[in-house]
Every structure is written in C-alpha cells, then in structure tokens.
Write a structure and sequence with these properties.
single chain; mainly alpha; two-stranded antiparallel sheet; 8 helices
C-alpha cells in the first residue's frame, strides 16, 4: 500500500512538473511572438511616417536611390548581425531596444517598395501581408509540432539566404538584373527560403528552451528568436509584395 502511494505521488509530481514545463514554454512562445509582432508594428509605423512626411524624399535622388538609403540598408544589416552575435551578452531590455531599432530601420528602407505598391495597386500590400501571415503561421506550427529533425536544412537555408543577399546587392549595381523571369524566380525562392527558415527556427527555439535553465538566458533567447522570426516574416512579405507588383 505504501509502495503504491509513493508511486502515485511520483506520478503526480512528474505530471505537475510536465504541466509546469508546458506552461513555461507557452509563456516563452507568447513572449517571442509578442516581441516579433511588436517589431512588425514598429516597421509598419516607421513606413507610414516615412511616406506621410518629407522623409521619403531623402531616400531618392534624380538618378535613383540615395546614399542615405544605402546607409540605412547596410547599417540595418550590420545591426542585425551584431545583435545576433551578441544576443547573450546584452540585457533582455537592451536586446529589445535593438530589435525595435532594427524594425524601424527596415520600415524606412521598405518605403520605396511600398510606394511602388501604393502607385500600382494599394490592395497588393494587404494581400501580401495576409499571404505572408498565413504562410508564417503554418510553417511556425509545422516547426513546433513536427517530430522530424529539421537541422539538416540549416546549411542549405544559410546558403540560400546568402545567395539572395548577393543577388540583391548585384541588383543595386545592375537594376535590370531582377527584371523579367529571373526576378520572378528570385522572389519565389526568397519566399520559399524564409518560409522554411520559419519552421527551422521554431524547432530550434523549442529545443533551446528545454536545455536553457537560466531565466535571463531564456529572456535573451526570446528576443533573439523574435528577431529571427521577424526577419523571416518581413522577408516573405517583401518578396510577395514584389511578386504582386511585377510588370
């Protein structure tokens, strides 16, 4: 009888511990998505302010995009890389500040693409956002639920992202590069790469939570995870918007 009581108590403690773990990861994921969608909101606000004020004129010259635009573009890229490398050195509050600063820079840099969409068909902005949101939700859920190890995708996704960055840089020198069929293919690849990145990052974030015990590190990881998912979501939105506004 005593043995049975001990067994039942052990089972109850295990169940309670499992429930606590489940509650912990739910809170952790809520924090990640709150930060991520907060950053998306900052991006939307920064884009709106840029388009609604004379600030947008600073992004253009008579011949195209201005030096100020490129400073913001590459400055934002450098900031995101630095923030990811130093993620566990910052206080969570500092990481959040850098996340929102990066989101604001992206909002300003995204303005030329949004202006094209507004000129052609403003409804494509809403369409691209809805499609990106649905794809993001599906891939995030897949990454969280799947039992298949997605780590093998890491190297291929990184190579794909580097390739997309290089094509993007080349297009600044040769604007015609992204015209026609090649540009359409690049947009489709961009959507695919960042959709898969969403699932890949979600699985990594779930696994990382299980091995990190320190609360501060969990908060730092939440900020880093929010940055990764934000980048994937915004990249999908941009590539979709480009697809919907191609001639």
């Amino acid at each position: 009888m005593a043995v049975k009581s001990i067994a039942l108590k052990t089972k109850a403690d295990t169940s309670k511990h499992g429930s606590k773990q489940s509650g912990g990861i739910e809170l952790y994921l809520k924090r990640i998505f709150a930060l991520m969608f907060g950053a998306v909101g900052v991006t939307a606000l920064a884009s709106f302010i840029t388009m609604a004020t004379p600030l947008w004129t600073l992004l253009f010259t008579a011949n195209g995009l201005s030096a100020f635009y490129y400073i913001l573009l590459f400055g934002g890229l450098a900031l995101s890389i630095w923030a990811q490398v130093r993620a566990f050195s910052f206080k969570p509050s500092t990481g959040m500040l850098l996340l929102f600063l990066y989101a604001a820079l992206i909002g300003i840099v995204m303005t030329p693409l949004l202006l094209v969409a507004v000129t052609n068909n403003p409804y494509t902005i809403l369409s691209a956002f809805i499609i990106a949101a649905v794809m993001f939700a599906c891939m995030a859920l897949f990454g969280y639920k799947t039992v298949k190890d997605l780590s093998f995708m890491g190297i291929f996704l990184m190579m794909g992202m580097i390739g997309l960055i290089l094509v993007g840089i080349a297009s600044f020198i040769w604007p015609a590069l992204l015209g026609g069929t090649f540009g359409t293919i690049v947009c489709f690849i961009g959507v695919l790469v960042f959709a898969l990145f969403t699932a890949y990052d979600m699985q990594n974030l779930k696994r990382a939570y299980a091995v990190i015990g320190d609360e501060t590190q969990k908060n730092q990881l939440a900020v880093l995870g929010a940055l990764h998912l934000y980048i994937s979501f915004v990249a999908m939105f941009q590539y979709l918007l480009s697809l919907l506004n191609r001639d």
